[in-house]
């Protein structure tokens, strides 16, 4: 039976750009199919990422550039939920009491090349050496430098309309720009796409192409109302991707990227972490052929994952065995979730060389997990005030999706991150953190 919302009107927060408004209106249109008698009021809010259009994103900061101001209004109860491009929502941390209440069906997650109109060219390979490619993404720059070292990469900030205007201004010197296919499609600008870059050359950003709806974790009515929009394959892929990024600890300044494929029951995931110029990288993949199978088998954990591996004191019975039904996902001060597993015995594996794609699984610490019950995600915890909170996975509430499947998807992302850490990702991250991240501006 479909959920009946408790309110007749909800306030929807959004950024002010044309693309953000198009995305928000598309969500409202879909909600009206389920709730035709409910009103949705759109509240436009400008974020720091919208206000500062000169500095590269990596130079401004990592967290919440396009979400913070929206979340402030959400926390103040001035709005009820926010429509985001999911790639803009941090995976490592969300503010207290914030959650992703729904994820809609994903559009094309790939990147596109948009070549300046005066060039009669159809692809990057057609452009002459020394051409200037506009992008403010460290992820794109690092991978493009790896595959197209002959070009110059320059920051190009602003919403899609602003970037298109900059590309058309010959005095600024851009020969092409890189943008998400999904954004161009939503603006009905597909005719401006010169080339789509396949993931074999450039993996895409975490959550790219998907719309995520953020709301208050204690607002169960809104979460239930939004849950009709959940697209299960997209939810599972994005949970895996967000779990990967959360474990790696990446943000705008860290070039990391993924590709996920979900086919009925199985999930395949590729991931990469690069330094800023693409000269060093670690890349690998994980696969779970059946997410519906409870995790009674082995899985990968790292000796350095102690902060991610813990048990609720109440999950141990008197004889020390696991009581799976009592496992709870907690929100801590640092918003780092506990992986619901017993702590493994630490083993230090050797680190393979950098700048290589692993063809075999490296030596890994092994742990086990008891079988979760096969049920929809209705497990709850409570706040100090006694408000029931729905369980979440990488800050995503997958209401009406089997908990076993959600947990296995999250575990895929964590395992892939651990594999990259064991291949030497820590060294690359240290190099990036010690670097002065300055992307040239026009």
Automatic annotation (TrEMBL):
EC number: 2.5.1.61
Record's keyword terms, sorted: Porphyrin biosynthesis, Transferase
Recorded metabolic or biological pathway in which this protein acts: Porphyrin-containing compound metabolism; protoporphyrin-IX biosynthesis; coproporphyrinogen-III from 5-aminolevulinate: step 2/4
Domain Porphobilinogen deaminase N-terminal, chain residue ranges per copy: 11-222
Keyword Transferase: yes
Regions of compositional bias (Pro residues) in chain numbering: 341-353
Residue segments, region Disordered: 311-382
Domain Porphobilinogen deaminase C-terminal: 236-286
Start-end of Polar residues biased regions: 316-325
Biased composition (Low complexity): 354-365, 373-382
Enzyme class: transferase
GO molecular function: hydroxymethylbilane synthase activity
Protein's GO biological process: heme biosynthetic process
One GO CC term, this protein: cytoplasm
Family of this protein: Belongs to the HMBS family.
PANTHER family reported in the protein's UniProt record: PORPHOBILINOGEN DEAMINASE (PTHR11557)
Function: Tetrapolymerization of the monopyrrole PBG into the hydroxymethylbilane pre-uroporphyrinogen in several discrete steps.
Official protein name in the record: hydroxymethylbilane synthase
């Amino acid at each position: 039976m479909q959920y009946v919302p408790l309110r007749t009107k909800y306030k929807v927060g959004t950024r002010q750009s044309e693309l953000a408004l198009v995305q928000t209106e598309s969500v409202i249109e879909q909600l009206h199919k389920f709730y035709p008698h409910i009103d949705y009021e759109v509240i436009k809010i400008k974020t720091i990422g919208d206000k500062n259009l000169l500095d590269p994103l990596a130079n401004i900061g990592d967290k919440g550039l396009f979400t913070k101001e929206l979340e402030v209004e959400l926390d103040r109860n001035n709005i009820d939920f926010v429509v985001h491009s999911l790639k803009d929502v941090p995976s490592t941390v969300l503010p207290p009491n914030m959650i992703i209440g729904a994820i809609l069906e994903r559009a094309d997650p790939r990147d596109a090349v948009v070549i300046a109109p005066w060039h009669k060219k159809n692809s990057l390979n057609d452009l002459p050496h020394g051409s200037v490619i506009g992008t403010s993404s460290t992820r794109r720059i690092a991978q493009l430098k790896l595959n197209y070292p002959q070009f110059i990469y320059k920051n190009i900030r602003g919403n899609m309309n602003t970037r298109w205007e900059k590309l058309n201004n010959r005095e600024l010197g851009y020969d092409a720009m890189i943008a998400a296919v999904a954004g161009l499609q939503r603006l009905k600008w597909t005719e401006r796409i010169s080339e789509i870059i396949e993931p074999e050359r450039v993996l895409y950003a975490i959550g790219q192409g998907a719309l995520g709806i953020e709301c208050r974790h204690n607002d169960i009515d809104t979460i239930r109302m939004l849950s009709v929009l959940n697209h299960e394959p997209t939810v599972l892929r994005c949970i895996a991707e967000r779990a990967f990024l959360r474990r790696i600890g990446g943000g705008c300044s860290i070039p990391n990227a993924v590709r996920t494929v979900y086919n009925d029951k199985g999930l395949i995931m590729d991931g990469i972490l690069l330094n800023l110029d693409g000269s060093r990288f670690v890349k690998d993949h994980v696969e779970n052929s059946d997410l519906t199978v409870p995790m009674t088998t082995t899985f990968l954990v790292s000796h350095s994952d102690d902060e991610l591996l813990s048990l609720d004191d109440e999950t141990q019975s008197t004889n020390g065995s696991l009581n799976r039904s009592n496992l709870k996902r907690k929100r801590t001060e640092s918003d780092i979730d506990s992986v619901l597993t017993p702590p493994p015995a630490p083993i230090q594996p050797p680190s393979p060389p950098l700048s290589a794609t692993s063809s075999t699984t490296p030596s890994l610490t092994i742990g086990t997990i008891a079988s979760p019950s096969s049920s929809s995600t209705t497990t709850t915890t409570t706040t100090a005030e006694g408000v029931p909170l729905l369980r979440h996975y990488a800050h995503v509430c997958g209401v009406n999706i089997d908990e076993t499947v959600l947990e296995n998807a999250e575990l895929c992302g964590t395992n892939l991150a651990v594999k990259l850490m064991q291949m030497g990702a820590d060294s690359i991250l240290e190099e990036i953190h010690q670097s002065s991240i300055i992307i040239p501006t026009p």
